[in-house]
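Q: What residues go here?
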């Protein structure tokens, strides 16, 4: 687990090649680099399919969006994917207003995001 004053990151590995990074707190200019770094580490460690569980995110600014785009590009370059799960309405609005929502798939729950990855017809 990684923890800063505004952000807590918790990892679990529900399937081969898949990681779920639960993000809690605020994703801002100070904390977004930690989320990005941890995500890229997971991908480098052989988990190219990453789900960001955002249910407990209280705030996200453009730094968080930029980190998500960077993670998406890195995952795709390694034949992986980035999915968002349980996205709070304030983050959904930010994704929609900026157009980032069309780039990154989102699911109502982590379980559904995982199903989309690991089942036939999913992103793997």
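A:
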């Amino acid at each position: 687990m990684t923890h800063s004053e505004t952000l807590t990151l918790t990892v679990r590995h529900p399937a081969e090649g898949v990681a779920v990074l639960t993000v809690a707190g605020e994703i801002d200019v100070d904390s977004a680099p930690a989320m990005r770094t941890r995500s890229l580490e997971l991908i480098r460690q052989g988990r190219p399919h990453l789900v960001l569980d955002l249910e407990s995110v209280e705030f996200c600014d453009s730094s968080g969006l930029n980190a998500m785009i960077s993670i998406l590009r890195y995952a795709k370059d390694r034949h992986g994917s980035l999915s968002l799960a349980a996205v709070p309405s304030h983050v959904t609005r930010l994704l929609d207003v900026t157009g980032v929502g069309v780039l990154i798939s989102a699911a109502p729950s982590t379980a559904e995001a995982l199903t989309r990855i690991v089942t036939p017809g999913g992103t793997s």
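A: Context that may help when evaluating the design: Confidence is low (pLDDT under 50) at residues 119-124. The chain is about 40% helix and 35% strand.
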